[in-house]
Amino acid sequence: MPANGDLSQLLQMDSDPCGEFLKELPKDIKRRVCALKKLQLQSLEVESEFYQRVHQLEKEFESKFNKLYDLRRKVVTGEKEPTDEEANIPLLHDATPEELAALDETAPETSGEKGVPNFWSHVFENCETISDMIQEHDKDILKYLIDVTTTVETSPEEGFSLAFHFTANPYFKNSVLTKRYFLQMKPEEDNPFEFDGPSVIRTTGDQIQWEDNKDVTKKVIKKKSKKGANAGKFLTKTVKADSFFNFFDPPVCDHDHQNEDDDDDLEEHELLRADFALGQLLRDIVVPRAVLLYTGEQTEDDYLDDGGDFEDDDDMEDEDDD
């Protein structure tokens, strides 16, 4: 006799249209469907191999991108002044000559400053997902951010890292804050059909060495005690405060012992997914397209739109009508 759990599953299958359909299939067809599923597993292995090869290719091209990003950093910080030839494209790519002239009408000839002040903080402000994380107390700190770089990690584990470079500042001692993402590149043995490309299994961030009384990720609150010897007295307690810099204190999720029925595990898993999505946004959009976010010519939605470069159906229909 089947165990209670197995019996419950069988009963559920009886009421499941999918289960009803499979029950009615002749055994020889079921056998062929099983063969198709095995082919699907083999296809997933090829897909996994594809993603691993892409990861290796990203590492191969990393140095070429970094040469350009290093020049970007030098211009941003004022270490390099671009030549006329290096700056001979329009400030806004789709603007008319009249619109470009209007942009210069009231602009002073020189700023008296080096580089592009507050470049990265302005990029972040123009990226809605990141902007939503930034609190008022973060803004002065982010003015010291001079570069964001990425590294493809291949050993000892596959993944990528994001490095935030800061000039000396009165808030913390670190010159670089690094966030690392570790990826699962292959289907899981116990649930292979859920494979949908690389997924994050864990992430770590550098510990910020805050100067005294400068930690914006914590706040002290007063709370009136209701019990014990201190009943009626106000006690102080340090709690977590909203801040962009919580990005470096990522959620911890035990990937090997997750229980989908456990609300806490589910919440941690969702937090991890959201954190990974933010890491991908920074790596795939913000870092490589920073200047277009700075000018406001493009937004994260331009890249995240499911429609990609294709026109939507309504536009296509309108053109057909013409």
Automatic annotation (TrEMBL):
Residues 298-322 are annotated as: Disordered. GO terms for biological process: nucleosome assembly. It comes from the Eukaryota. SUPFAM superfamilies: NAP-like (SSF143113). InterPro entries: NAP-like_sf, NAP_family. One of its GO terms (cellular component) is nucleus. Belongs to the nucleosome assembly protein (NAP) family. This is Nucleosome assembly protein 1-like 1. It comes from Mesorhabditis belari.
